[in-house]
């Protein structure tokens, strides 16, 4: 296995960690503990299943940190294809980290309110429940905003993959469409929230481009058997 294969598989492993960790808070905790339109029931669920909710916070922190490492690993893999595009990819990709960290703070606030700590005695229980729901709502809004960057960073990544010569061009096209789908969801969430769910039904299948890319990196690495495009530089073995 040469240096490029090692870089590809490292990026694939980091991508796998993000794919496994991100849904803990994004999907599982939300579906298990949150009751739509019922702040009191949601707060009770959070208090009763604190470990699960804290797992979601830990998942966000872990995802934010690994996302940064992933952007750097992909830069190492693709920098010789086009260094300018690779720098742009990293510059857009690192925004994942602050979004996840800020959302961990939102959840920590909701958890504190659900327990009704002594310094919150000035607020009655319905007020605390409403404030907890507000922080959970802010968490959701941050995800909507983050989808813009989830989409933007995939665009230079898609071009790099397409031009690389050692990764399938189809993956580059799929990643580009994947990025546009994320951005469309973000725009809908801000401007047309009533259409967000309907758009998600269309966008979600398109967003499997990242999964396909991750699996290719993990299983196939950087395939030397793929024909290189003319002028595509190569990484010397052992660097």
Describe this structure in words.
By secondary structure, the chain is mostly helical. The protein has a domain at 3-146 and 210-219. Helices cover 78% and strands 0% of the residues. The chain is built from nine helices and no strands. It has helices spanning 3-33, 39-48, 50-78, 83-93, 96-115, 125-164, 169-191, 196-206, 209-219. Helix 1 (3-33) runs antiparallel to helix 3.
Topology:
Blueprint: H1 3-33, H2 39-48, H3 50-78, H4 83-93, H5 96-115, H6 125-164, H7 169-191, H8 196-206, H9 209-219
Helix content: over 70%
Q: Which descriptor suits the 3D outline?
A: elongated
**What's the count of strands?**
0
Oligomer: single chain
Structural class comes to mainly alpha
Can you summarize the main beta sheet?
A: none
**Helical element count?**
9
- Low-confidence segments, ≥5 residues, pLDDT <50? 227-239
N-to-C CA distance: 12 Å
Radius of gyration, taken over Cα atoms and rounded to an integer in Å: 20 Å
Element pattern in H and E: HHHHHHHHH
| Integer average pLDDT | 89
DSSP strand content: under 5%
Describe the structure concisely:
With 239 residues, this protein is mostly helical. The chain is 78% helix and 0% strand. The longest helix has 40 residues, at 125-164.
Which labels suit this protein?
239 residues, mainly alpha, 9 helices, disordered C terminus
């Amino acid at each position: 296995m040469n240096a490029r294969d090692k870089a590809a598989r490292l990026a694939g492993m980091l991508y796998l960690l993000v794919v496994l960790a991100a849904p803990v808070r994004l999907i599982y905790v939300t579906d298990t503990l949150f009751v739509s339109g019922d702040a009191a029931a949601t707060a009770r669920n959070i208090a009763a299943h604190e470990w699960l909710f804290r797992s979601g916070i830990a998942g966000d922190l872990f995802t934010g940190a690994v996302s940064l490492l992933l952007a750097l690993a992909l830069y190492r893999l693709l920098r010789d294809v086009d260094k300018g595009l690779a720098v742009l990819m990293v510059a857009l990709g690192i925004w994942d980290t602050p979004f996840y960290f800020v959302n961990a703070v939102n959840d920590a606030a909701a958890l504190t309110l659900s327990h009704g700590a002594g310094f919150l005695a000035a607020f009655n229980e319905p007020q605390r429940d409403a404030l907890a729901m507000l922080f959970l709502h802010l968490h959701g809004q941050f995800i909507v905003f983050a989808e813009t960057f989830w989409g933007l960073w995939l665009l230079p990544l898609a071009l790099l993959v397409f031009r690389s010569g050692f990764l399938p061009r189809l993956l580059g096209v799929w990643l580009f469409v994947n990025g546009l789908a994320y951005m469309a969801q973000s725009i809908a969430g801000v401007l047309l929230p009533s259409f967000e769910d309907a758009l998600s039904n269309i966008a979600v299948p398109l967003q499997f481009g990242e999964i396909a890319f991750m699996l290719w990196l993990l299983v196939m690495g950087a395939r030397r058997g793929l024909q290189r495009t003319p002028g595509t530089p190569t990484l010397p073995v052992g660097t």
